[in-house]
Specification:
285 residues; mainly beta; Immunoglobulin-like; 2 domains; 8-stranded antiparallel sheet; 20 strands; globular
């Protein structure tokens, strides 16, 4: 009986350790695909951030952050280093600067996460399901003196905006960067059904197909012009990958009334019968 109890206890602690390990943000092989809209640069882009390798800086162990080339998968290290402690706090060190608190996954309801730029108050805590069925804790924040109204963190994944620059994106930009997809060891975990994990610059599609989407940001209606009749279907997804709108493109000019959508970021997708897919990030104000 004692033997059975010991085996059962060991199994319990082993499984529990696996679950905790799976929720670490600072972990070798984690990858974040982050979309950056045009801000200072007129072009949009998708960057693939990944953790690869570790290093000692002033006798403190850090993991190294790199950007992965989408075609060659070659890594470019960006002088950014992350560490995570036993209290679920994540720190970032950039260049020769001292490290600072990037995330605190030990926050409780009504706690305030204070930064040099603005503050974030926890207004709700729930859970979200990953594509492998695992549940992760999710925090909803209200911005205090921030450009954006609300944001979310997912434990072990980070912000729904940029994994590293989420604070400056949230505090300063009303159309901040967006986390498209999160991978663990090459497996897509979040969101469950992403509308896109890579978004090409709009100009690439505009030049080739003369496709136009306007206005953006929009308030109630959005229009799509397809003068070459290159696409056959149009869809709108939210940032969780949930399909909210779909319609056949049977005209070169489409008018969509999306006034019922909540204020936030969405993804408009058009596709044709040859498998060409165009993803456009739209903002409802």
């Amino acid at each position: 009986m004692n033997k059975l109890y010991t085996i059962g206890a060991l199994l319990f602690f082993s499984l529990n350790s696996i679950q905790i390990s799976a929720q670490e943000l600072v972990k070798e092989g984690n990858q974040w695909n982050v979309y950056f809209p045009p801000t200072f640069d007129p072009n949009s882009s998708t960057s693939l951030y990944t953790i690869s390798g570790d290093t000692l800086i002033n006798d403190i162990s850090y993991h190294k952050m790199a950007i992965k080339n989408r075609v060659t998968e070659e890594l470019t290290f960006i002088d950014t280093y992350l560490r995570e402690d036993s209290t679920k706090k994540v720190f970032v060190k950039r260049y020769d600067n001292a490290d600072f608190l990037l995330y605190d996954f030990g926050l409780e309801l009504d706690d305030v996460f204070t930064t040099d730029y603005c503050s974030l108050k926890v207004i709700a805590i729930d859970s979200v399901q990953l594509s492998n069925g695992q549940m992760r804790k999710r925090y909803e924040f209200e911005g205090i003196d921030a450009a954006y109204q609300t944001t979310f963190w997912v434990e072990g994944i980070g912000s729904i905006h940029s994994v590293i620059d989420h604070v400056t994106n949230f505090c300063f930009f009303d159309a901040p960067a967006t986390l498209l997809c999160f991978y663990e060891d090459g497996e897509l975990l979040y969101p469950e059904s992403p509308p896109a994990c890579i978004i090409n610059d709009v100009s690439e599609i505009t030049v080739q197909y003369e496709l136009e989407v306007f206005p953006n940001p929009f308030y109630d209606k959005i229009f799509v012009e397809d003068p070459k009749h290159a696409f056959s279907e149009i869809q709108v997804y939210n940032s969780l990958g949930q399909l909210l709108y779909t319609e056949e493109m049977n005209s070169s000019f489409m008018e969509m009334n999306l006034a019922h959508l909540e204020v936030g970021i969405y993804y408009l997708i058009v596709r044709n019968d040859k498998g060409v897919i165009y993803t456009h990030r739209i903002v409802h104000q």
